[in-house]
Batch of 2 targets.
Target 1
Amino acid sequence: MIFNIEVNDKTIKAKKGDTILETLRKNGITVPTLCNMETFTPTGACRICVVEVEGRDDLVTSCSHPVEEWMKIKTHSPRVIRARRTIVELLLSSHPDDCLYCIRNGCCELQQLARELGIRERRLPVVKPLRKKDPSSASVVRDPAKCILCGRCVRICKDRIGISTLDFIGKGMETTIGPSFNNKLNVSNCINCGQCIMVCPTGALHEKDNISQVMEALQNPEKYVVVQISPTVSISLAEEFGSKAGKEMSGLLISTLRKMGFNRVFKTAFAADIMINQVAEELFQRLENGANLPMFSSDCPAFIKYMEEYHHDLLQNISLCKSPQQIMGSLIKHHYARQQKIKAENIFSVSLMPCTAKKFEAQREENTHKGISDIDTVLTTREVVRLINLFGLDMQQSVPELADSPFAIRSSSGKIIGTSGGVAEAVYRTLYYKLTGKNLVNFKIAPLRVNKNIREFHSKVGNHKIGFAAVNGLENARELINQVKAGRNDLQFIEVMVCPGGCINGGGQPITKNTEIAKARVKNMYDIDEKDSIKVSYKNPAVIDLFGKYTGKEKDSFLEKLTTTYQKRDVLL
Amino acid sequence: MGQIETVLQRFQTNTRDNLLPILQEIQQETGFLSEEAIIKVSGYLKIPTSKIYAVATFYDQFRFTPRAKYRIKICSGTACHITGAENILSQLEKRLNIKAGETSKDAMVSLEISQCIGACGLAPVILVNDTFYAVVTAEKIDEIVDFVKGTSGN
């Protein structure tokens, strides 16, 4: 039902069932929010969204109050602005004054509110509870001194990721947010996905910054610095450098990285093609043997840690194939080093990823051999943006360049793995070929592209009934895993991406509230898939060439380097 | 079977609404909520440990360190507050050399601040284990400290 209400002396349309905030937003009236999260139940905790409703003595939180027909609302009356300003002043009174040194300087919601509300002096005395930083995790840094207790991290960790690492501790002035027993993150059940960072309004949660290690390596004449670019990173930078969101910046990024002094620039998508081929082969074998099905994808390091913590009885169901990052890491330090006659210890291998969990993955024991890590440092998309700005390089002035051989070519299958459903689709294309010896006529697997959290695709290939599922948002994966444990057997392959929407919305991506940006990235990934001539991983000529170099025993040892192992983890759940 | 398991066994249904009673009984039996206890409750009720810790730290009634032999509770209700509870606390802190919420190293005495215990007419009130001390004065504090220290052998 649509009815009229009066807002700021003008009549606007409202829909029954909407909150006041939703009504105002639909009519282009901006009201600031802090604790509010789209698609989550409102809590009305921060009270920054208060408005004046005629006939009501108290101010009303617009996020949690349904709009009603009789309402006459003032959204920016002196009383409302005074209230909002006091709330922000109170938050600032227990917040450190170190904006200049803060990782979120310039993109902090608290800073923005203080600016918008014109707060120019400290009216309230400073009460700064002593809170220590927690740098223990390889991926996520917690700085509780900067926490304003909005609870957004708590909610995303519970409702979307489903593991509840973070929660409120204590009450009143003493309240903090942290893991069980106020422990350090590295001993908690945190899976490093970084979604808490994506919703944090301040610098209380941020990625572990590894830029200085990269700078150091670039300055070191003895280091041969190699970088790999994730297919998702190059598609996630555009809006940061004045282009349309979702635009592919691969060529520009490659030339920019060369200007910084990286000796070689490789494409992770090349390794993704290898992964897709290996995963399809593994699935093919499992279908033949009928063992350890369904097989779970192994490229999401947050999902792997989750399985090691919660479902170790299903570890044998995870593909043994390394993630693209680690395949590339292994290729660089072993194959490439030997080919170029460079000592592995002299290579500094950097990986650009949309993901914070990749930092953890790079440090896993399995990915270090004789004290040398396959990947030395992982930078998230956000750090890549900072690095480019640090060098003062203008992306738009660059001339696009190609990546370095031998890891320069990808199929479009290697590109679409950045979005939920992409890995499943890519693996299906190769599996179809393995089962039938024929190429798919229609490469587009529409059921895996629908905008749903759990996508399923069932078909009959040869004698096999094949069920593929792709799931994003770990909470949804839990549901599917429980179905499998309860005996569901119509699925043979399950792709899991912990982040809602997949890697394009990863925990290392530029922070934004604009949901259109992620959609633009997905659209462009599929557009690239549509246009590219090589659509399947098994036709990547560079991969065929690489695999042709190895025979007999050498081949076995080469293939072994593409696989990994998993182990049960005992952490506080 | 451990004390914690015994408590859990008393609760036939492992539903969330049993969380508080379970925590209360565990504290009753063992004197405090250990990490081990919270982990076991988490496993039993299928609630993440972080959530249980969040609930437990919200309530003043739960403690996370072992209980001392003499537990001094200073009422911080309105009447006691007005009649000098804060002063009593600071005196006790000084005399016992521990802060509120702490336990002495020999586990003989602990200091806690409690919510209103409902004896406002007798304010200020403190509790030593289950014994009430009403209208507390400086002399009474001496008496309590002597008693506690006397039995602890100092």
Target 2
Amino acid sequence: MPGIKIRLKQQDGITRIRALISHPMETGYRKDEQGNKIPAHFIQELIVKHNDNIIATSIMGSGISRHPYFAFKFKGGKPGDKVSISWRDNLGFSDSAEKIIK
Amino acid sequence: MFKSRRNFFKKTIGAAIYFSSITSGLFYSISAKAGWPSAYFRQNSYKNALKELFGNQKLSKTENIELKLPKVAENGAVVPIVITSKINNTESITILADKNPVPLITQFTFAKTAEPYVSARIKMAETSHVVVVVKAEDKYFFKKRKVKVTIGGCGG
């Protein structure tokens, strides 16, 4: 399963970004079948970029749902421009993906 | 002599940055080096989370935040939320759920080119209020909405 799926749509000079990230977003409160606590594992930081410019950033806890979905909008995107999304979680894992505006 | 003077400047500048960040309330900004402010998420009561996030800033109730949320969430593990701020120069949008074990869910910070819009899916432990706080030009605004949760989404 790919880590980050990005969809872009342009309308009236505004680009809408929709992103679906593959991540367990474990709270640390849940227990497995043996009754052992499942350790917390969640994304802490997210960065959204248009070419090399940051559009938005997010800090989050485990209150974001499993396999997070986010949508953003920004001005000034042109066909051929790059939109990228990257994240880093509490265990130090990270991932990023990019997509070109059509 | 020179060394100590340099240290003095270092310390003074460091202290100045430190204090200005305290007075500005929200330490996190997109120009700052990436860092996850654990203190924001360590708070286990809504009141404490607000205090840690916004200090003594006044939060004004507003209708200029458009909030799309279900009235009833059958599954608290996945509650869709769409926020559009109509407040000029919106810099950040913060989402809290007042009865979650960790009340702060997320905080978005926007560049000038971003529209003050965000959509996400959040977890809610039980029936409670979702509170959205917008920071704009050093002022803070909020809108809150009750969501009835049939099955909680945190303990599992």
